[in-house]
Amino acid sequence: MPTSEFSKYTFLEHPFDPLYDETSRVLILGSFPSVKSREQAFFYGHPQNRFWRLLAAMFHEPVPQSVPEKCALCRKHHVALWDVIASCEIIGSSDSSIKNVKTNDISVILSAAPIAGIFANGKTASRLYDRYFLPQTNCPAVCLPSTSPANAAWNSERLYEAWKSVAEYCI
Description:
The chain is of the alpha/beta class. The chain contains seven helices and seven strands; from the N terminus they run ββαααβββαβααβα. It has helices at 35-40, 51-58, 67-76, 107-112, 123-132, 134-137, 156-163, and strands spanning 10-13, 26-30, 79-83, 85-90, 99-103, 117-121, 142-144. The strands form two sheets. It has a four-stranded parallel beta sheet. It has a three-stranded antiparallel beta sheet with strand order 1-4-5. The longest helix is centred in the middle third of the chain and has 10 residues, at 67-76.
């Protein structure tokens, strides 16, 4: 019996908490954790995702390997991480398959930290931020090219050039 398109979808809730503290100056928002990130219960867990290499390069730091090292890098440079989506139906890790979105509450971060800039990691995060959060925050998010391995059109050098301005907000 063939599998229907509908049965490929899985309803998922976001499996881990945001990363931030009272000194966070930048909020980087993704859409929803990938399969690998959900397995690791932390942001940008796919080994081919360029996020951690990019963040390390921006701050002239070694690339973090463990979750505690990733947390330390973000805290040292005042970076908060969260995702726009709290729950959705999704096929695997495909942002293009996301439907029936419920959003996370980013006001928790915005009220606790002096966020100077909000950045969206990819078009899906940017589109959802603009739809659900911009009317409340009145603070536009800068849409940056996705660090996902699916975004093969952007090599590491181009990504770095697009993302390097994030570091200016962290001072």
